[in-house]
Amino acid sequence: MTATQEQATAAASGANATERFKTDKLGALADTPPERVSLLAREVLEAVHSTIRRHKVTYDEYNALKAWLIQVGEDGEWPLFLDVWVEHVVEEVATEHRQGNKGTIEGPYYVPNAPERGSHGAVPMRADEPGTPLTWSGQVRSTDGSVLAGATVELWHADAEGFYSQFAPGLPEWNLRGTFTTDAEGRFEIRTIRPAPYQIPTDGACGKLIAAAGWHAWRPAHLHVKVSAPGHELLTAQLYFPGDEHNDDDIASAVKPELVLAPQPAPDGHGDVVEYDFVLDPERA
Ligand code: MBD
Ligand code: FE
């Protein structure tokens, strides 16, 4: 095991994800009317009640659930739990009107304000960053076909061992996280490395559920992106690699066929090259 793996506990990355979420997103719902809060809370509770009745849930099972829910919080794994098992449906509902690019879930490991790298450049990485080099070029357009110059492409992904900077210890702060701005033709070119498939932490409460249910903990290898331009809806997406065994079996249910890349060996023999463009929806009136 490497030094990074030894220290990458669920509690450590969970605590980081929980802190990050509290800093960025709390307080977003202060204006929700009580009628809607009541409706949603009641329907969720009714779904729980009907599961208990249908399957005659015992006191031992109820107490196991209580202990497990407490542990999710203690391990800081609420962001992980929700993003893995719930977010994909929220994303589906939030973006069903879109004509442009398909998106998918954000997941727990986005950090805003990654270092700027212009329109063509490399993400911050270690001098000896392991992994197959990947050069990704693309263009950002609006749904009417017009080119979006000055659009922002934020990229973040795991390293070749499956670790995210700022969540797993021992990595440089902005490793494999960068912000790119499209040129006058709406184009960008990003140099990075291919990430590894990602196994969600197995030593915390989410891992306990996975083991107890006989599930697996894998997500396919993926690149996370946020693409934005003035007057357009923010696109949050992930891009996947063909042939990954978990593309059809992602624990986070976040793969869509439109998001699978088609990389080719680079003509200069230096890793892979890939093209992938984005189409953004104009903001609705
Ligand atoms: C990830 O890297 C991720 O993208 C999601 C959705 C959940 C856990 C880890
Ligand atoms: Fe991820």
From TrEMBL:
Residues 105-282 form the Intradiol ring-cleavage dioxygenases domain. The keyword Metal-binding applies. One of its GO terms (molecular function) is ferric iron binding. One of its GO terms (biological process) is catechol-containing compound metabolic process. Residues 35-101 form the Catechol dioxygenase N-terminal domain. It is an enzyme of class 1 (oxidoreductase). Keywords: Dioxygenase, Iron, Metal-binding, Oxidoreductase. Pfam families: Dioxygenase_C, Dioxygenase_N. Its cofactor is Fe(3+). Its EC number is 1.13.11.1. Residues 97-124 are annotated as: Disordered. The keyword Oxidoreductase applies. Belongs to the intradiol ring-cleavage dioxygenase family. This is Catechol 1,2-dioxygenase. It comes from Saccharopolyspora hordei. The lineage of its organism: Bacteria, Bacillati, Actinomycetota, Actinomycetes, Pseudonocardiales.
